[in-house]
Structures are given as structure tokens and as C-alpha cells.
Amino acid sequence: MQGKIALEEHFAIPETLGDSRGYFPDRVWSEIKSRVLDIQDRRLREMDEQGIAMMLLSLNAPAVQAIPDKARAAEIARKANDYLSEQVRKRPDRFQGLAALPMQDPDGATRELERCVKELGFRGALVNGFSQVGDAETVVHYDLPQYRPFWAMAERLDVPFYLHPRNPVPRDAKIYDGHGWLMGPIWAFAHETAVHALRLMGSGLFDEHPRLNIVLGHLGENLPYAMWRIDNANGWIEHRHNYPARKPMRDYFCTNFHITTSGNFHTQALIDAMLVLGADRIMFSVDWPFENIDHAARWFDACPISEPDRAKIGRENAVKLFKLA
Ligand code: MN
Predict the structure, then answer these.
(1) Residue partners of 158: CB distance under 8 A and separation at least 6
(2) What residues sit around ligand 1, an ion, with C-beta below 5 angstroms?
(3) What is the pTM of this model?
(4) d(CA 81, CA 67)
(5) What is the CA(97)–ligand 1 centre distance, in A?
(6) What's the gap in Å between 20 CA and the centre of ligand 1?
(7) Is the CB of residue 172 less than 8 Å from the CB of residue 165?
(8) Which of 71, 136, 158, 83 minimizes the C-alpha distance to 107?
(9) Taking the domains of the chain in order of start, what are their residue ranges?
């Protein structure tokens, strides 16, 4: 398919490059490093080869979210966003920006989101899960009450918020002791991000701000497959539910959430997601440079879905949601 749009596509600045280092053995790091630092050269060539018209670019992970010092987090976010803005200005027909945000400081994150959208023309934000605040062991998730003014701003600006994975801090990763291979994209990323998404849904955030749009990668971090059981076990059938939000989780999932194919190029999982969410809430993505553009594009271009659904998932849904027309 020509004209695809991909929206979980990362770059690094020198200050955040090291955040990606630990995920890769030495033998592949030089390759990943050159990919993540490049924007205007090889990335564009591979996009051309695989029919990708546009990428929405975002900073690598965990980057800003893993800087406990609020002032430093704000400084790195601003620096990354200014750099991204420069890069987008070179090729606005091929690249658009998603803001990195210093969520350690709810007011600062709100101001940076507003700056990025109004002054830099960014199409939304991509945040790497929870933030560490003050010290490495203190973490905040964004269902907490101090984030409601931030969410009000995101709703007012009408820009999507991409909740991207990161690994849990050591205190919250005890279950993986002795099984480090389960960290990262193999399992821990999806678990951490799905729990965060469920916290947002259960907190009542979407009752207060019903027009918020949250994007999850990796075909929904396993949530489509789990959604029926979550609601069923929450007692919606016979008893009152036991969280503050007013509706079953599937209502929020199908109203306030969108998912992408980033790093999950598997037809059975896509079909399940289409049955749960519908083709209007799924968007093509790669997760470059950590996944290959050709792997994502060749799978998506050939997977057995209808051509109208391929057009929606490959391009049209992203044009609408991120106002790319
Ligand atoms: Mn990613």
C-alpha cells in the first residue's frame, strides 16, 4: 500500500541516546545507534521503498520520564522538542512531531504540551509511561489527581496522547527476578503499559474528559484479548463494579483509545483487535528503529483484511485523528 502513515517512530538526541543502549547486545548497537540518530537520510529512503508517506516522530524511551530531577526533565524535553521541530520544518510533507513531556511536573508538562502544539505545530504527545520524580524509586502514574489539569489541556487542544512503554523500576519488577529476559518488549513493557491504561480507565478520567484520545502501541499491549474478562470479572453482570469510573472498561477502551500495529506484525492479533475495537481505531506503525520498516510494511501490505480496512488502518485513521490533511 502506498501513502501509509506510521506514528510510533523514534529518534534520539545525544542526551537520550544512552537510554536505548541497554536493550541491545554490542553486535547490533552500532546499527541501532545510526538508525535512531538519523532522520533525513536512510529513514526517508526506507519510507520511500516501503510506501510510507509520513512518520510522526517521537523521542526514544524512557528518556524524559526517567529523569527524577524536574528541572532537568523539563530542559531535556524542551531540547528534544526544539530539535524535532527543526527536523520537521525541513520536510513537513514527510515528518510531523509528537511532544516529549516532563510529566514529573504536571504544570510544566501542561505548558510544554501547549507550547509544542500551538507554537511548534506538533500533532500530539508521546510519553514513555510513568515518570520518576525526585528519586529513582518514586514513580507517578497519570491517573493521579494532580494530572487532571494536564488532561483538561490535552482535551482542550484536541491532541492525542500516545502512552508508550517503559520497563518497571526494580522495586516493581521483583516478579522478573532471575528471568531478566522477560523485561522489555518480550513481556514487561506490555504489562506495565496495560496496567497504566487500565488505571486511567478505572479512575474516572474519561467521565470527566470524554473527548480524550489515548493511543497504545503494539496492538493494544494485550488489552483487546483481555477486555471481556476484565469487565466480566469486575462484576458488571451481577454486581456493582468496584472502581470509581462509571462505565464498563470496554466502553472507555472503544471510545477513548486507539491502537497501533507497532512491533506486533501478527495477523491473528490484528484480527482480534479489529473484532474488539473496529477498524476505525487501529493505525499502522513500525516502531522504527527498533523494528524494521520492511518487516512492518510487507506484513501489513499483504495481510488478509479488506482493502477499505487497509486504507483506514494504513492511512485514513491517522489523518483524521492527528489532523494531517
Ligand atoms: Mn516504541
Answers:
(1) 211
(2) 8, 287
(3) 0.98
(4) 16
(5) 14
(6) 11
(7) no
(8) 71
(9) 4-321
Spell out the residues 6+ positions from residue 18 whose beta carbon is closer than 8 angstroms to its own. none
Q: Which amino acid is at 277?
A: L
Ligand 1 centre to CA of 289 (Å) is: 8
258-307 pLDDT, tens per residue? Answer: 999 999 999 999 999 999 999 999 999 999 999 999 999 999 999 999 99
> How far, in Å, CA of 139 to CA of 131, rounded?
6
Selection from 171, 163, 237, 218 nearest residue 195 by Cα = 163
52-84 residue pLDDT tens: 999 999 999 999 999 999 999 999 999 999 999
Tell me, in angstroms, the distance from the centre of ligand 1 to residue 259's CA.
13
Which residues carry out catalysis? 287
- Fold of the CATH domain 4-321: TIM Barrel (3.20.20)
Query: Looking at this protein, which amino acid is placed at residue 19?
Result: D
Distance 266 CA to ligand 1 centre (A): 17
